[in-house]
Please model this.
Amino acid sequence: MKVEWQSDLQIFSPEECQALVKEFLALEHYDENKESTYYKNSLGFYNMPGSLAYVDRVTSFVKDRYPQLTFNSTYARMYQRNSTLNIHTDRKGLDVAISICIEDNNNLDWPLNISAKRYDGGDWDLEKDPSHFKTKYLEAHCGVGYGAVMEGRNFPHWREELLCGEKQRAIYLFYFWSIPETESKITRLVKEIEERLAELKEEMAKGQQ
Model:
């Protein structure tokens, strides 16, 4: 089951996005084809200086829900024709993330898919059949300057192949935070309760039909 969601979480203004894109394009990027397990035809840059200037602002969007989190890093990535982001969970220490679209001049509207099924296996198992995690997921659409929050360490996420023109592209900026293990357990418990309540509500609604 897929649930479509259009982000109303605006992080950056159009002008700020343009400045970040300009900085990104001027940098020497990391070719992610070297890590073809997860990526294809994308370029990235770790801790882009301009992105670090906004850490406090971006953190304010997640601080209430995760009061003990600690900023970890940022990563900017440019996706091009036939780019893919295979299903995965984020590495240890990247517990909470915000994915922000900073350029989509061609209205590609390339959603981020976030599974509603929790993954408890630590680092992502490449041998694992991912179909279970794709049976129920959120399809997050983010306009330029808008973002989506996720617990990327716990919930597998992916993007389908980007079908676009040869000169078209989409650029995203990611912010990552770590949270203490004790808070992770509490957050997990709260999440499980919320999920079960939602399931019960759905079951009750079906029973009344």
Remarks:
- Residues 180-209 form one domain.
- Strands lie at 2-6, 30-31, 39-46, 70-88, 96-103, 112-115, 137-141, 147-150, 157-159, 170-178.
